[in-house]
Write a structure and sequence with these properties.
This protein has a single domain, classed as Rossmann fold, CATH 3.40.50.1580. Helix content is about 30%, strand content about 30%. β8, α4 and β9 form a beta-alpha-beta unit. α2 packs parallel to α5 and α3 packs across α6. The longest helix has 27 residues. The radius of gyration is 17 Å and the shape is globular.
Length: about 240
């Protein structure tokens, strides 16, 4: 089964790209899509661009072009859960688009109007595999990841309190739920995991240039573990 590995930025997936054996590359617009093997699995590695529209568009294109059997999306995120530290990893038990707001028309916050789509679950088998990873010096926890087209570096005013008080988010980012919704509609198992780079309340922030390689390494090790576990289960 082929696994599609995605990140919003090239820096978030570069480690995966360089680790591939038998690597071949395909061009799509200004994107380089890498195809090869990782942990005895066939994989496709690509970046989507930032934001919900870019991630949804790229995910659907890659599904159409390569017909992957599963999708893993990774990268960095901001922490909403005050019990989490920079460097911890949140594996999405579920995702939600926090800025999809049609409440004035009678729909719940986060619901796609006139559909059943609101809470988007990760695939249970992939989630379970990720949670069997045993980290050293950081934590890997299941949680709810919120997605929206806002770059939130601080939310000290009442406008963003609902992310925790109402939506019970553990982390916030800009692509996961939109890519997850595309996967769900296409009936493809999907997993989202994010390394925490800052606390969105502004109380702690990692140095981005020095932190991103460390975050990418953590993502790589966990995803490689997931592929190994699901590969053994299949065997």
């Amino acid at each position: 089964m082929t696994t599609l590995i995605l990140g919003a930025l090239e820096a978030e997936i570069a480690g995966f790209r360089f680790a591939l054996s038998r690597r071949q590359e395909v061009k799509w617009h200004n994107e380089t899509i890498s195809v090869g093997r990782l942990a005895e699995s066939e994989v496709i590695v690509a970046w989507t661009g930032v934001g919900k529209t870019m991630s949804a568009m790229a995910t659907q294109h890659l599904i159409d072009a390569f017909e992957p059997g599963r999708i893993v999306f990774t990268g960095i995120a901001g922490a909403l859960n005050h019990e989490l530290d920079i460097g911890d990893v949140v594996v999405a038990r579920e995702m939600l688009q926090y800025d999809l707001d049609a409440r004035a028309a009678g729909f719940e916050l986060g619901r796609v109007p006139f559909t059943d789509f609101r809470i988007i679950p990760s695939d249970p088998q992939l989630l379970e595999a990720a949670l069997t990873y045993r980290p050293s010096g950081f934590r890997v926890i299941p949680g709810r990841i919120l997605t929206g087209d806002l770059f939130l570096s601080r939310w000290t005013d009442a406008r963003h309190e609902y992310l925790v008080s109402e939506l019970c988010g553990d982390a916030v980012e800009m692509e996961g739920a939109s890519a997850g919704l595309v996967a769900l509609v296409n009936r493809i198992p999907f997993l989202l995991l994010r390394v925490l780079s800052d606390r969105v309340d502004g109380s702690a922030t990692a140095d981005f240039k020095t932190f991103l390689p460390k975050a990418s390494e953590r993502s790589y090790e966990i995803v490689r573990h997931v592929l190994a576990v699901v590969g053994q289960q299949k065997g």
